[in-house]
Amino acid sequence: MAPSVQAIATVGTKTIYAGSFGLGVFRSDDRGQSWTSANAGLSDPFILSLAAAQDGTIYAGTFRGGIFRTKDGGKSWEKFNEGLKRLEVKALLIQQGAVFAGTGDGLYRRPDGAGEWTVVTKGLDDVLVHAIAMAPDRTLYVGTSGKGILRYAPHALEWQRVTHGLIDHEGLRENFIRVLAIDRDRALYAGTFDGGVFRSGDGGATWRPISRALPNDSIRGILLLESGLYVGTGRGIYKTQNQGEQWVPVNKGLTEMSIQALAAGDGGVLYAGTNSGVFRSDDGGLQWVGISEGLQQQPQ
User: Which structural domains are found in the chain, ordered by start?
Assistant: First the structure.
């Protein structure tokens, strides 16, 4: 049985990294047709997040071991934790020459490849950050466990909660955010643990639900592509082309419907990490094929 894949990162047109929960990181150089274990130096095999820099450096966030970095395609990993207070790392983002890490003690920043981790301003002590997004004007947004969504604008003094309208169809405030994404028009999308998807067109000031027609409200991934908005849920993948008025299931070929991660590669290829391995679609989600050959082996 293939492991649960919590994170996926793509490099170029053919190389993919899959972060599993318990078997570490796997690498494929043929779009997932075959995988090899890539865990030398990786002391925590429970991977929660992955990010790829433009030079091919890969960062992995783990459950208990903090952050690891590889510069040789996964042949060897080094710990990358100087300055971190908590070593559970749920989210990684590389933007504007810096790496951002969502941890159990807020958001940290580190210049890409240098220095040590420093906390991004005050206000998120002991708060678990699940998701990170950055707008073109460098405004940062985080999705958290317990405090909803917070915004940190350049030159601001501290984090500001932006939760107006984050109310689900049962009238409950959504304080547990799992994923965030920003589209070209700077609209924000937030996926919650069990309250569906919300959209903000005004930088987070107000939110509205867009997933009333979605069969499952547990959101694990959001992809914003030319062809539409895709979400990965606890019961498959759905697509909308009209901001959530209608959701179409795009699950043909998926034999595991519990999605844990969504990623897009070059040329419109889609990848889905699930509770049992990885799937790929070459046609925008119309058809999926399982690509878990080699994911079952134990780490070396």
Answer: 5-290 (2.130.10.10)
